[in-house]
Amino acid sequence: MLTALSWLLNYFTFGYENLINQLLYAVFFPSSSSSSLSAGAGGWSPLTSDRYQWLEVDLGERTRITAVATQGRYGSSDWQTSYLLMFSDTGHNWKQYRQEDSRGFFPGNSNADSVVQYKLQQPAIARFLRLIPLDWNPSGRIGLRLETYGCPYSKLGPGPRQTSSREVVSLKFKTLRNSGTLLHAEGEGGLSLSLELERGKLQLLLRQGGTSSPEPRRLASLGSLLDDQHWHHVAVERRGAHLNLTVDKHTERVQIPTEFNHWDIKQLINIHVSCCFISLVIIFLSLLLPLSLSLSQGNVTFSCTEPVSVAVTFPGPQSFLQLPGAAATAASVGFQFRTWNKAGLLLTFDLPQEGGVVWLYLSEARLRLQIHKAGRALLELSAGSALNDGQWHSVDLTSGRGLFFDWISALVSCSGCPAEDDSQECRNPFDIFQGCMRLLTVDNQPVDLILVQQRLLGNYSQLQIDMCGIIDRCSPSRCEHGGHCSQSWTVFHCNCSDSGYSGATCHSSVYQQSCEAYKHNGNTSGHFYIDVDGSGPIKPQLVYCNMTEENTWMVIQHNNTELTRVRPSPGLNQHLIHFDYSSQEEQLSAITGQSEHCEQELSYHCRKSRLLNTPEGTPFSWWLGGPGSGRIQTYWGGAQPGSQQCACGLQGDCVDPQHYCNCDADRTEWADDSGLITHKESLPVRSLVLGDVQRPGSEAAYRVGPLRCHGDKNFWNAAFFDKETSYLHFPTFHGELSADISFLFKTTASSGVFLENLGIKDFIRIELSSSTQVLFSFDVGNGPLEVRVESDVPLNDNRWHRVRAERNVKEASLRLDELPAATQEAPADGHFHLQLNSQLFIGGTASRQKGFRGCIRSLQLNGVTLDLEERAKITPGVRPGCPGHCSSYGSLCQNQGRCVERANGFQCDCGLSAYTGVFCHTEVSAIFKSGTSVSYTFKEPYELIRNSSTLPSSIYSDMTLRGENVSLSFRTNQSPALLLYISSYYREYLALLINKHDELEVRYKLDSSRDAEVWRSRVRSLANGQLHTVSIRRLTDSVSVQTHTRQKQHFRFLFNSVPLVETSFSFLFPPSESDELDPDLARLAALGFTGCLSVVHFNSISPLKAALLHPDTSPVIITGPLVQSNCGSLASANPYAAENTHHLSGKDLSGKRWGESQPLVNAIRTDSALIGGLIAVVIFVLVTGLAITARFLYRRKETYRNQDVKGVKQEDSPDFPFNNQTDSQNVSDENRKEYFI
Predict the structure, then answer these.
(1) What is the pLDDT of residues 1123-1145, one digit of tens each?
(2) Shortest CA distance to 479 belongs to which of 466, 491, 490?
(3) What's the domain range around 487?
(4) Which helix (H) or strand (E) holds 676?
(5) d(CA 1179, CA 1198)
(6) How far apart are CA 1147 and CA 1160, in angstroms?
(7) Transmembrane residues, as ranges (predicted)?
(8) Does the pLDDT at position 721 exceed 60?
(9) Residues 447, 432 share a domain
């Protein structure tokens, strides 16, 4: 039971400046109750009000202190506004009490009468308490009345409750040594457990072979700076299959090694070096401690003699210590220090006789010594490394020569200088030292720092004497997800490299949570890291995202996805196959849980090998699937769970109607049972057990495909808020130390609150503060903090915008879309626990501020998605879902692709595009040989109407042309070459060719009674094997031609009247030899075309795409071999479609290789006739290829023999780039008009 403790004057010790007149200012009356201090009068007030005063209380014995209360001095203007609390068991070696591990000061009073009480989060156990005022009423002095709450501390206290599943070893210790064994337990088989200190950290070690084991296995590591001569509580507790290691208030849970499942302790040894122990409690139950246990004692003294070691802390830039020297024939200085900083001045002193100065400092965590004289270094030395590790390091500086120094000319200086000292005696050209020192000696004489504290020796400024205030900010580490923690004296840093996470504490994942999210960032098929729970504990995993289909598939492989023959094991009636997946258990569970649909192929190929049905009804084979090791499943792919059927049994088309699986017919011919497992609770398939594989003549093969899932329920989970007063509410958000919030929104409103959660004083809120600004505000007890991001474009444009906010112990950040993140650092010495207790409001506020009107989607808090849709179904004013995604994602549809709305997301319709793929970005290309051509015949309008419902939209268009828009890409080494030819029924045409000068040439003949007009580009070397793109656009009599290497160039027809290309016409690329062609074009067509054509587009029609993808339903005629390929554009074809096409196996097993865990080869049919047929086909292809090559060479030779083609040189004109001269050398008609482009 807690009691109020008020202490008489004889229990108080005051600062050294107040020893004489303490009774005049320290009137303190005891209080008989714990309710208030107002019954007492007077109070304590020192003569001088500065930060070097303190009030010390001796409680008479070790006490468990749970709270303190302060009040100003009675009837005055004297009170302190903030203070520090120190505790000690001996009156020396003080330890500062910190709230929340970092907050060092306590807010005090605001007047002389009110009482401010603080309950300590962790009770302090000490005999002495010291209160140090930091700030006070500027109109008064330091003054206070103090009350302490607690109860006497019992060393042993009540023992832990004994239960059948709990074994505990508990002790308290304190030491000055940073290494040594605290507890060692030996058991049978040479196994032992040890609790050891290593560099001030407690290690739980497992050894095999006793204490001499060279490399112990570390099970856990906890604590830091445990060599501080303060009491620390340690407990090792067994709970079931886990061990909990507790050091002070931090616990680490570890899995018990399998070696210890039946381990008996034979001897418990307590080995320590310069340690004190109290409260050693041992409770071993169950199998852990037999009756033969013996406790051995070595050199043990049942008392705790503590050496007095006074340390001093240099906390800041004005920390300063000055000590006098003494004349000696041999001077020396010694001390120990510990720090986290890599650099800092340790000490300096003058050499009067030499006229020099000595500097001893840290640089790059090495100790360096410099002796300067007249501005140059006489001596430089360095020693040590990694001296910023927080451990104590000893320094001894000794000179055999006479270094004489006295009070005036000798200065021993540590760290910085006083703020008020402008003299030349205090100088520090190096970084300041922040750390602790102890055991200071000058000329082998110890320095009494207590005399320094009392101003009886030397001088100092802003030091903490008789304590070491070092803090390990990396224990426990605030860096999440494996981030590496490093620190300086004041801050810590997290290195998130290779962790997959980012931010000040490695909290936020750098990966998306699904393939669906990657797709909507504009990515195409490929391998991606997926982090299914964002900032949660599940690690990222590498999966394949297949975006070639309407659905976006996440593909997870295992160790054998090929069709594999069963090789029976002798003596075993069953064959067991286990599948290991590339993802861990929790990853698989999360993926199947958040996906809308999952499936996995399961197939069995058999010859005299039955599958499920037996005469007794027990299946021959089964499989295990689902979480963990899986549950037994007795149905097969394509059937329903629990049916004990295959797909054919469900469909009623098995080869034997008396059975529910094809393989159960037990025939000598090959059969198969294949299908998809779609019941998510049964996925993934973990193991197969095949039973009927041992009979003579039995043969079987199996295939378990990869796990495939599509649809991200979290990504599209959305709610629409109709009114500003509507909202959704959820349970309180728990993000005490780390909180990340992400969501997407779209709205037409200019402001509104997205979410809000309140506490008593704390709160967190994200809002749209204006049409261009998002505001993230919160309060964790240090006052409201705000982070803002300003957008250059309006945010109320009814398009999706993404918000990501994060708050941790180091900083708060806010990111909007892809704009740079705005950050706000957290106070260095402030509260950092976010304490909320109200409901979480989404789309509105508890404070009745203006709510949000619009859509919120994919709302995640610390990686957990809130189900907005389910809550919206039962909430008035809020509707589930939010349509209209093309306004945000429509730009992802490229190359004239059309965005089509879906219930969850969108789809790109590539019907009017020459491209294909998920975003209409994959080129459609083909390799052409000399005898290859594609002819596309356009239909009459009435035929279009009749066939429009069944044919692709890219095939037909309006046939009355007042203009054309033609584009294509090509790659060839052939010159000259005719690329494409478009003609009408009235012999009007458009031809695109490469002439013999490697120039691009465009010929237009729009009137059969007139000659063709020719335009030539000045771009040469087009037949260089590189990819070139050409666009031709005509509107009535105006034509523009553009290549990828030049700007668009324009020209007009010379004829006043431009006829229209009407009715039916043909599109040939490249055209074959025909009587309808002009003679010179016919000669070019006779050469054929060898090369690659890509993305051929004519108005809204894509002839090449129709020929390759819809040859049966398109009006195309393909002559010669047409091979789909990739011309080498930037948008490459998707490799997944060609290499990893998912299909149900079993229709044809030829071409697969037999072997355990290997692809199946020639498993079913090994007919030798197939081999002969293949040989015949190869010979035929070779002979045909030789014939075509010979014909091509002969015709090319004849063409050049009959043509007398000469180049025409034209003068370049910068004012008018087109020329009207004729080209009688290249055109048979003398009146043909030609131009240069």
Answers:
(1) 888 886 543 433 333 333 333 33
(2) 491
(3) 473-506
(4) strand 671-677
(5) 29
(6) 13
(7) 1169-1194
(8) yes
(9) yes
Per the prediction, the chain carries an average pLDDT of: 78
3-state secondary structure of 25: helix
- Chain segment 564-616, per-residue pLDDT in tens: 999 877 777 888 999 999 999 999 999 999 999 999 999 999 999 999 877 66
Query: Per the structure, how many domains does the chain have?
Result: 7
- Transcribe 587-652 into DSSP letters: HHHHHHHHEEEEEEEEEEEEES---S--TTS--S-EEEESSTT-EEE---TTS-TTS---HHHHHT
Mode of pairing for the β-strands spanning 435-442 and 332-338:
antiparallel
User: pTM for this one?
Assistant: 0.75
Question: Cβ(197)–Cβ(165) under 8 Å?
Answer: no
Residue 652 in domain = yes
Confidence of residue 1183 (pLDDT cuts 50, 70, 90): low
Taking only the tens place, the pLDDT of each residue in 26-66 is 333 333 223 334 444 578 999 889 888 999 999 999 999 99
Cα dihedral 260, 262, 268, 270, rounded to 10, equals 10
Residue with tokens 């494996």: 482
Burial state string for 256-278 with b = 16 or more CB within 10 A and e = fewer than 16: beeebeebbbeebbbbbeebbbe
User: 355-361: which pairs have CB atoms within 8 A and are 24 or more residues apart?
Assistant: 359/429, 359/430, 360/395, 360/397, 361/430, 361/431, 361/433
- 859 and 743 share a domain? yes
Residue keyed to tokens 């029924």: 985
Please provide residue 681's backbone torsions phi and psi, each rounded to the nearest 5 degrees: -65, -15
Q: What's phi and psi for 277, nearest 5 deg?
A: -125, 140
Cα separation, 224 vs 202, in Å, equals: 7
- Pair of tokens at residue 752: 């509104």
Per-residue tokens: 768: 């749209």
Report the alpha-carbon distance of residue 416 to residue 428 in Å, rounded. Answer: 7
Q: What is the pLDDT of residues 938-951, one digit of tens each?
A: 764 434 344 444 44
Q: Of 120, 152, 184, which closes a domain? A: 152
Cβ contacts of residue 618 below 8 Å, gap of 6+? none
**Same domain (yes/no): 594, 653:** yes
Asked if 316 and 462 count as a contact pair (C-beta separation under 8 A), the reply is yes
Instruction: Tell me how far apart the alpha carbons of residues 603 and 670 are, in angstroms, rounded to a whole number.
Output: 13
Amino acid at residue number 629? S
Largest Cα span, the chain: 128
